[in-house]
Amino acid sequence: MNECSETVARVRYKDTDQMGMVYYGNYFTFFEIGRVEYMRERGIAYKNMEREDDSYIVVAEASCRYLRPARYDDLLRIRTRVSESRRRSIRFAYEILRHDSGEMLATGETVHIICDREGRPKSLPEKYRQLFPLKSQVGAKREPSLR
């Protein structure tokens, strides 16, 4: 299976600001679209993780670098991959490109903590570990915490 997932999404009018450009906060919505499709392609549904495994993937950090504006009705290509995974956290990396030209519009990352229903950090259940092989960066900071 490809390490990177690609999803196509169209910029809707509600995604834009008064100038017709995607409002900066909405790039995180496009990241979420990419992340959900990444998981779905690997046979993982968030609702099943929550319901069957008492495992929630909670956003602990999010960042975005804006390179060029996306505009109303643009067709976007969202690339998503796991850049790092640990026992209790997963880091996703994103690229948003203009679909027709391949022009890079934004890049970003989100870091997620695996938690139970009460918000207590827990290890990623065994059955998902093969889909998120443990990989950490040399000299990486310790795992993020919700505390």
CATH superfamily: Hotdog Thioesterase
- Strand composition percent: 25-35%
User: Which consecutive residue ranges, at least 5 long each, have pLDDT under 50?
Assistant: none
Mean pLDDT equals 90
Shape descriptor reads elongated
State the CATH architecture: Roll
Rg (CA only):
16 Å
Helical fraction equals: 10-25%
Oligomer: single chain
Q: What is the spatial order of strands in the main beta sheet?
A: 1-3-4-5-2
In total, how many domains does the architecture comprise?
1
- Please trace the helix and strand order, writing H or E for each element: EHHEEEEH
**Using DSSP, what is the number of strands?**
5
CATH fold name: Thiol Ester Dehydrase, Chain A
Major sheet characteristics = 5 strands, antiparallel
Level-1 CATH class name: Alpha Beta
DSSP helix count? 3
Strand pairing plus helix content: what structural class? alpha+beta
The CA-CA distance between the termini, in Å, is 35 Å
What does this structure look like?
The chain has 147 residues and is α+β, with helices and mostly antiparallel strands. The protein has one domain (4-129): Hotdog Thioesterase (Thiol Ester Dehydrase, Chain A, Roll). Helix content is 18%, strand content 35%. The chain has 3 helices and 5 strands, in the order βααββββα. A 5-stranded antiparallel beta sheet has the order 1-3-4-5-2. The relative contact order is 0.22. The model has no long low-confidence stretch (mean pLDDT 90).
